[in-house]
Structure formats: structure tokens, C-alpha cells
């Protein structure tokens, strides 16, 4: 795969535009189909050398054409091949029709397929472009294959998955592996699509990179390639204030742990100074638990405003353990001109009037990062959360534009979005991140990069990636304290 395309994700519509532009440039479309089908056959032989029979399920479009090419290549390699078609193959058109004719192989109706021991299914029914629920004959075959535990190799995307949203459209195959072409699609990375695709192989069928670059939108897989040039760099004249002063707001005495986790992660992630801003009732417990992290008493918004006038503070984290209500809203509005990471209780405090938050941070460069999980996202953006036609990427992008903020839409398929339409899907976070406090650590990491001068979106993307890498280093038995300890141990990006 050409390295420049590695992290690009094309929607099905964008991939269709790439195919069309390629044909307009004079590249024969059947040549692309031939290379695609040959790649599928090679992958099938490599992954399933012990298959007794390759069962190729061919749909009525170009995905089916890829299947007919693969069937011919497998037969020429000496494999046993059976083809089953959906709809009348005599009605095939264009490249798919030519691919079937060149195969010279008979086919049977899809509903006649009965799984047998030793079968491997090559799913070439629909691919990534499907936008409607799969028809009943396909649902029946999906169920048969699943019950018989037959291995599946999917062409482009397991049939039944939406290539844009990564969700099943009624029913979908669960593939052991998937062969796609030129770039992956959002549906390969978003859940549950990521699980249903198995191992994804990307094969270059010859569409010029310039065409891919032209049709590509702003969605990428999160990777250091995208933001490493913006990471903080230290020189011989670096001092602690040049590395930024991060402030994390503490909750009351009974809820101080989350802020200390954020603060510890912020210090590990490179902030030159970190201060926990604590209410008076929590000063004693915070003081007993902090060493390198400093402590400052803040009870009222007037206390905060006075401190802002006198201290050199670079960025802020508000929300972890803070408490929901008017005090949180007052503090946030006092910080409207400052770089702020708003998490947890800070987000929920604006559920009754999200526009109050959005309006406060609407001016100037983006200096607000919001880190909602699913429930918190629905509190700030109820209409977007309820829109089933939108993908997680599209929801995050619309939310970022509305809030004039970097959005970290958390989950096992975290999406980071910017108001200008950029969106990164993160894939490196292990299941061990599903532990209490991991979100508090992430907020502190974002805040630290923010404090060191990274733009909001890039700081969020980098912190999400390093958060996942830290969790992988700690291992399965990880706690949030372990995660915070490893927050600054970065791999070479």
C-alpha cells in the first residue's frame, strides 16, 4: 500500500467517485475489477489453505463481478469452487457481466446453498455501498453460515454492513478476514463493523493516489503521522512555565480522586506545572495526597477570577468529580477565553441549556475540548445522538461545528472531531481502558498538551492515541492509577 494513503478513510460515495474519476482518466474499469478479484483469490488461498471448497456468493453489481473474477482465479489455481448468485445473472451489466462470462463457471441460486464441512465462503454480494436492509434470501444464508461456523472472507466489506456507519442493515456476515481496495472505509473501523470485518487487508488495484487525494474527505484513522510535527518539543532554554501551567479543578472532599488522577496524568504528559484548584473543604485531603502537583484554594467564581488576573495559567481541566450544577457553569463561563478541557460533570452541567456553553466559546480559535461518552454526548447533542442515519463520525463533526470545540466522542471506537470537518477514528485503545478513572486520565493528558501549545483538535487526537498506548503497556490488570503513571511514557511517533 502506498504510504500516503495508509490513514485515509473513504466513504462509499467517495470510493465511487474515485472509481468514476479513474475511468474518466482512461484507466480501464475492468482492469481494476480483475486486480481486485485476483487479490481476493490470493488472500483466500493464503488464509485458508486447507479449504475443501470455496463457495463464492456473487451479488448483482460490481462486488459480484469481483467474486466472479476470484472464482475463476481460484479454479485456475486448482481449487474446488462453487458459485451461488443473487438475482438473475443474465441481467448483469458492464464489467460484472464480462467477469461472469470470462469465468466460464456455472452458478446456482443463492437460496440453494447448503453449508458443508470444509467450505469457505467468499462473500461478494454487496460490499461497502449497501444502503438498505439486506433481502430475505441473504438473511437466510447469513444465518446458515453462522450456525454452521463456516469461515467467511468478505470482499470490500461483509455484506449487510453499512460502509459509512459500520452498523448491520438487518443482518450482516461476520467475516474472518476482509479484502478491501485502495483505502479502508469508516465501516471497517467503527463498531460493530470493526469486529465483524476480522483482519482487514487493503489492496492497491491501481487507482492513482492523486485521484484518492482529490476525492477524499477529512476522515482519517488516528495516527502520529497526522499530528507528530505539532507535539511539544523541548530545547536547552526550556523552563517549567514554557511547558505550560495546567490547572485541574477538584470536587468536594468526598470526590477528590478524579481531579488528582487528571493532575497526575497532566504532569506525566509534560506540563511544566500542575495545580489542583480545590474547594476549602477538600484542601486537607488533597494536600495529604499531592507532592509535585501544587494546590490552590478556590471556592467561588470570584476567587477564580482573582486568580486568573494574577497567575500565569495556560490551560484548565474541569469536570472530573467536580459536581453538577450552577457552580460548574459559573466556573466554565469565567474560563470562556482560556483553553479548557470540559469533561464528565462539567459537560452534564450544561444539559438544560447547551447553547449557553456553545455561545461562550464561539469566538476566536478553537480553545474548548469536550470529552463526552455516549450518555454525555446525548445530553449536549440530543438531536444528533438520536439520528440513526448519521454515523458516529458525522455526529462528532456536526457536534464540533455546533460547539466550536474539539470533540472526543469516547468509546471503544473513539472519534475525535474538529469544527472544520476533520475527524479521526482511534483504533489503538485496548479493552482494559474500560475501567473507572480512565477518562479522568485522558482529560489530564489533553489538558497538558493544550497547556504546551498544541491546537485543541491535535492535542485531543494525540492524547487519545497516547492514552491507548499507555494502557497497552500496563496490561490487562490496569487501574486508572497505573494508567496515569504511564501517561508520559510515549513511543517514538
TrEMBL record:
Residues 223-493 form the YjeF C-terminal domain. Its cofactor is K(+); Mg(2+). Coiled coil: none annotated. (6S)-NADPHX binds at residues 62-66, 127-133, 156, 258, 321, 373, 440. Residues 15-213 form the YjeF N-terminal domain. AMP binds at residues 410-414, 439. Signal peptide: none annotated. Keywords: ATP-binding, Isomerase, Lyase, Metal-binding, Multifunctional enzyme, NAD, NADP, Nucleotide-binding, Potassium. InterPro entries: Carbohydrate_kinase_pred_CS, CARKD, Nnr, Ribokinase-like, YjeF_N_dom, YjeF_N_dom_sf. SUPFAM superfamilies: Ribokinase-like, YjeF N-terminal domain-like. Binds 1 potassium ion per subunit. K(+) binds at residues 63, 123, 159. It catalyses: (6R)-NADHX = (6S)-NADHX; (6R)-NADPHX = (6S)-NADPHX; (6S)-NADPHX + ADP = AMP + phosphate + NADPH + H(+); (6S)-NADHX + ADP = AMP + phosphate + NADH + H(+). Its EC number is 4.2.1.136, 5.1.99.6. Pfam families: Carb_kinase (PF01256), YjeF_N (PF03853). HAMAP family: NADHX_dehydratase, NADHX_epimerase. Catalyzes the dehydration of the S-form of NAD(P)HX at the expense of ADP, which is converted to AMP. Together with NAD(P)HX epimerase, which catalyzes the epimerization of the S- and R-forms, the enzyme allows the repair of both epimers of NAD(P)HX, a damaged form of NAD(P)H that is a result of enzymatic or heat-dependent hydration. Catalyzes the epimerization of the S- and R-forms of NAD(P)HX, a damaged form of NAD(P)H that is a result of enzymatic or heat-dependent hydration. This is a prerequisite for the S-specific NAD(P)H-hydrate dehydratase to allow the repair of both epimers of NAD(P)HX. NCBIfam families: yjeF_cterm (TIGR00196), yjeF_nterm (TIGR00197). Belongs to the NnrE/AIBP family. Homotetramer. PANTHER family: ATP-DEPENDENT (S)-NAD(P)H-HYDRATE DEHYDRATASE, ATP-DEPENDENT (S)-NAD(P)H-HYDRATE DEHYDRATASE FAMILY MEMBER. This is Bifunctional NAD(P)H-hydrate repair enzyme. It comes from Neorhizobium petrolearium.
Amino acid at each position: 500500500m502506498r504510504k500516503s494513503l495508509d490513514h485515509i478513510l473513504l466513504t462509499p460515495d467517495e470510493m465511487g467517485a474515485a472509481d468514476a474519476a479513474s475511468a474518466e482518466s482512461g484507466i480501464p474499469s475492468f482492469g481494476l475489477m480483475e486486480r481486485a478479484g485476483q487479490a481476493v483469490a490470493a488472500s483466500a488461498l493464503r488464509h485458508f489453505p486447507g479449504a475443501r471448497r470455496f463457495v463464492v456468493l456473487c451479488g448483482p453489481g460490481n462486488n459480484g463481478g469481483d467474486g466472479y473474477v476470484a472464482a475463476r482465479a481460484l479454479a485456475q489455481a486448482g481449487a474446488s469452487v462453487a458459485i451461488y448468485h443473487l438475482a438473475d445473472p443474465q441481467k448483469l451489466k458492464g464489467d460484472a457481466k464480462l467477469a461472469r462470462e470470462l469465468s466460464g463457471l456455472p452458478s446456482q441460486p443463492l437460496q440453494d446453498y447448503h453449508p458443508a464441512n470444509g467450505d469457505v465462503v467468499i462473500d461478494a454480494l454487496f460490499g461497502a455501498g449497501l444502503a438498505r436492509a439486506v433481502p430475505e434470501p441473504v438473511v437466510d444464508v447469513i444465518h446458515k453460515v453462522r450456525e454452521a461456523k463456516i469461515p467467511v472472507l468478505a470482499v470490500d466489506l461483509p455484506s449487510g454492513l453499512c460502509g459509512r456507519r459500520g452498523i448491520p442493515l438487518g443482518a450482516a456476515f461476520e467475516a474472518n478476514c476482509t479484502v478491501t481496495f485502495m483505502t479502508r472505509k469508516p465501516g471497517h473501523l467503527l463498531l460493530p463493523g470493526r469486529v465483524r470485518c476480522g483482519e482487514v487487508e487493503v489492496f492497491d488495484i491501481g487507482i492513482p493516489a492523486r485521484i484518492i487525494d482529490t476525492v477524499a474527505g477529512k476522515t482519517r484513522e488516528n495516527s502520529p503521522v497526522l499530528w507528530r510535527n505539532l507535539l511539544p518539543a523541548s530545547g536547552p532554554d526550556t523552563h517549567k512555565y514554557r511547558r505550560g501551567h495546567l490547572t485541574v479543578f477538584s470536587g468536594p472532599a468526598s470526590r477528590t480522586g478524579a481531579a488528582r488522577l487528571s493532575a497526575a496524568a497532566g504532569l506525566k504528559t509534560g506540563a511544566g506545572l500542575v495545580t489542583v484548584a480545590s474547594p476549602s473543604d477538600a484542601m486537607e485531603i488533597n494536600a495529604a495526597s499531592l507532592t509535585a502537583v501544587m494546590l490552590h484554594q478556590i471556592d467561588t467564581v470570584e476567587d477564580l477570577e482573582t486568580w486568573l488576573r494574577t497567575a500565569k495559567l495556560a490551560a484548565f481541566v474541569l469536570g472530573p468529580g467536580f459536581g453538577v450544577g450552577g457552580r460548574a457553569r459559573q466556573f466554565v463561563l469565567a474560563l470562556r477565553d482560556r483553553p479548557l478541557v470540559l469533561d464528565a460533570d462539567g459537560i452534564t452541567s450544561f444539559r438544560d441549556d447547551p447553547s449557553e456553553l456553545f455561545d461562550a466559546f464561539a469566538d476566536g480559535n478553537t480553545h474548548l475540548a469536550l470529552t463526552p461518552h455516549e450518555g454525555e454526548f446525548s445530553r449536549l447533542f440530543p438531536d444528533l445522538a438520536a439520528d440513526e442515519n448519521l454515523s458516529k463520525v458525522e455526529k462528532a463533526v456536526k457536534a464540533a461545528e455546533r460547539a466550536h470545540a474539539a470533540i472526543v466522542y469516547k468509546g471503544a471506537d473513539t472519534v475525535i472531531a474538529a469544527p472544520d470537518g476533520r475527524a479521526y477514528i482511534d483504533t489503538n485503545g485496548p479493552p482494559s481502558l474500560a475501567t473507572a478513572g480512565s477518562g479522568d486520565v485522558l482529560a489530564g493528558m489533553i489538558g497538558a498538551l493544550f497547556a504546551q501549545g498544541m491546537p485543541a483538535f491535535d492535542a485531543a487526537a494525540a492524547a487519545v492515541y497516547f492514552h491507548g498506548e499507555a494502557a497497552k503497556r500496563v496490561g490487562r490488570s490496569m487501574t486508572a492509577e497505573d494508567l496515569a503513571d504511564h501517561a508520559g511514557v510515549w513511543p517514538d511517533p
